[in-house]
Design brief:
- The chain is mostly beta strands.
- The protein has one domain.
- 6% of the residues lie in helices and 41% in strands.
- The strands form 3 sheets. The chain has a 12-stranded antiparallel sheet, with helices on one face. A two-stranded antiparallel ribbon has the order 13-14.
- The two termini are 20 Å apart.
Length: 224
């Protein structure tokens, strides 16, 4: 197991509830009665009101995620971002306190997404366009391009166990590349290893196993 010296804690159902890091923030996870992940918190405690990062999820009776709320610390200010999921359609608003656009996405196929950007205040359409998803043999997205073939944002790659690595496969993803990837994630593509991100589970790349569900999170093990 990588990161020897860290501790993992589990609930009675076998779900990981805490990742006690060697140093820095710990990660805390809570679940609903069906073992779908309800909240993931990175910070000093599960109940902290000023987390470094937090993800919250809501599910319909079939276990399909329909709402997500991201919270994070940005230079001492807590920001939030809401995403609504309805099958192949999802809509994300701009973060709180930020003048941005509402982004609507429709998955036309495994390789094509239709994107519409709307003015967050007036609801007026700003632009509508297609993005093309280039996948590896496991279905993970390595690159996103526009209609002209230009790569949008940071190219990415995943090792055989799901950890993010540099696009040239030379090493694990470095801090600069990860920062660029996360900064563009909501505007370009939000899925992770093998395109997970729909159901109420998490993938633990450093253990090379699924927890309860398929949410791929970039907080410990570079997974989101």
């Amino acid at each position: 197991m990588v990161n020897v010296g860290t501790d993992l804690f589990y609930d009675a159902a076998g779900n990981i509830t805490q990742y006690d890091a060697i140093s820095g923030d710990d990660t805390f996870l809570s679940y609903d009665a069906r073992s779908n992940v309800q909240m993931i918190t990175v910070g000093t405690s599960a109940g902290t009101t000023t987390p470094t990062a937090r993800e919250q999820f809501w599910y319909d009776p079939n276990g399909q995620r329909y709402l997500g709320l991201e919270t994070w610390d940005e230079t001492g200010v807590q920001k939030q971002l809401v995403t609504v999921y309805l099958g192949d359609y999802e809509v994300t608003g701009p973060p709180t306190g930020v003048s941005g656009d509402v982004v609507e996405r429709v998955s036309a196929s495994a390789a094509v997404q239709r994107i519409k950007k709307l003015d967050a205040w007036g609801g007026n359409q700003i632009s509508i366009f297609s993005r093309y998803l280039h996948r590896d043999h496991l279905g993970s997205v390595d690159a996103v391009t526009n209609a002209s073939g230009a790569v949008l944002g940071e190219k990415t790659s995943f090792d055989p166990f799901g950890g993010r690595r540099e696009s040239n496969w030379a090493s694990d993803i470095d801090t600069a590349s990860m920062s660029t990837l996360l900064a563009n994630e909501n505007s370009i593509y939000t899925r992770g290893f093998t395109d997970q991100g729909i159901w109420g589970q998490i993938y633990l790349s450093r253990r090379a196993e699924y927890g309860d569900g398929f949410i791929y999170l970039d907080v410990w093990g570079a997974n989101a």
